[in-house]
Amino acid sequence: MRSDGRRTRCGGWLATAAVIAVCAFLPPVRSLAATGNVTLKWSMQTIIKVTLTPNYYVGFGTVPAVFGTQPTPAPGPAATLDGGSVDFGNVLSGKDYLYKYAVQLTVTTNSSTGFNLYGEGAADFYNINDNTTQPLDQTLYYLPSTNGVTPDPNTGFSPSLPFYRTSGAVSGGSFTNPPTITYTTYPAPIASSSVPSQTFYYDYQLKVPPSATAGTYYVWVVYTVVAQ
Amino acid sequence: MRSLRIPALVFIAAVVLIAFAAGGRSLALFVSQRDQIAVDIIINVTPPPVVYKGPSVSPDRILTRVQMRAEGSGERFDALPAPRLVAQNTPQQPVKVQAEVTPNPYATLLYSNVSFVTVNAVAGTTVTVKCAYTVTASTTVSYFQLYHGLSNDFASNFPGGDVANNTYISTATPQPTSTPFVVYADDGGKWALLGTNGYKQTYCVDLTVTVPIGVQAPATYSSNAVYTIYF
To answer: Is the domain covering B31-48+105-230 a CATH 3.30.160 domain?
Structure first.
């Protein structure tokens, strides 16, 4: 019995060695080389940065609409270089004016498909002295400008487009406090970009209605950027 | 003194004779510009509808695309789908626009009922807008001249002359035909005489816009119709 048992254990070792030897000489298993498609999906947080610079270049300010030689721009007292407001200063009812180098907007995003730029008035053009208003789209206009290094060729008669009063929900927006607009439906963009980042330059035009009463008028223009 | 008086009288008589002989036009020598306004003309152009044109050869072709790649190489590794943008922030930036308005005693000397008009048109088509806007001259003089024209073209391939006007006294009948606007920037810095009249008159302006087929669309174009009064 003892000698048979020893023979049995030796036979087990030999069988194991034989199996290992056979496995070593087998060809590679084909399933290890199989190929297939792997679909990767992920979500990415959009990053958008907007920088607005009023009166962005030397020579900003109000120019009456005339043909021929253009008067020297003269802004109102609330306008300062690279800051303040777009202050047309003293204007006459029934007259048209250009405001040079009004706004520079620098938009930076990580959206490879670009973005839309929206610009609307938070309200109509409001007279704080007698609480009357003038329709914004009959009063305030915008048009492309230059970076200033290239001189701005616009006049008070250059083609322009009106700002519209927003149909979104406005929060805030007093003379001293800027508003915010909450949109459920966006209006037509004033500009679109197919690249992630771009800088825009705008002049404004003020067409003072003949019926405008005397006083200090203001409106907040709100720019919104939405990735495409 | 007597020798100077006679030539002076002759000169005055000659001026008066010329004025009567040439009618109103000679009065232009003695008038000056009193006011000038602009009406923005905005044209929204949409592209013409796309028409499908069938294949020129009748047999349909069967396209087969075969791609090969090395065994073990990645499959379309550089064709990953675009990431899905979620929960985007919508930053806003406000700017205050303000002005100190002072009454203008001449604000109602020449004015329009609107500061802009919008015309929607398809590229390659013509659109007419009846009495798109009015222009009113309100004077106390019996004689004034009214000039008009566009400040500039709508685009390099969309000349201002593609917009014609039919301007007439609002209580009268329109002119038989429309006339293309002159363009100040192209036509030597000159306006066209719209007409002469006196006291208060309101003009209706019909616009006929012919959009060239080759303009970029969809796009928005604009120019200014400028009116200048002399007396």
So the answer is: no
Check CB contact of B80 with chain A, cutoff 8 Å. yes
CB atoms B90 and A112 under 8 Å: no
ipTM above 0.95, yes or no: no
- Flag if A218 and B91 touch (Cβ within 8 Å): no
Q: What is the residue-wise DSSP string for B86-144?
A: ES----EEEEEEEEEEE--TTTTTEEES-SEEEEEEETT-EEEEEEEEEEEEE-SSS-E
B92 touches chain A (CB under 8 A): yes
Domain boundaries, chain B: 1-30, 31-48+105-230
Cross-chain CB nearest to A159 (options B89, B103, B223): B223
Per-residue pLDDT of chain B (231 residues; tens, 9 = 90+): 555 666 666 666 555 544 444 444 444 567 899 999 999 999 999 998 876 665 555 555 545 454 555 555 555 544 445 545 444 578 999 999 999 999 988 888 999 999 899 999 999 999 999 999 999 999 999 999 999 999 999 999 999 999 999 999 999 999 999 999 999 989 889 999 999 999 999 999 999 999 999 999 999 999 999 999 999
Smallest Cβ distance to A103: which of B87, B95, B114?
B95
Residue B17 Cα, gap to closest chain A Cα (Å):
35
| Omega before B81 within 30 of 0, i.e. cis | no
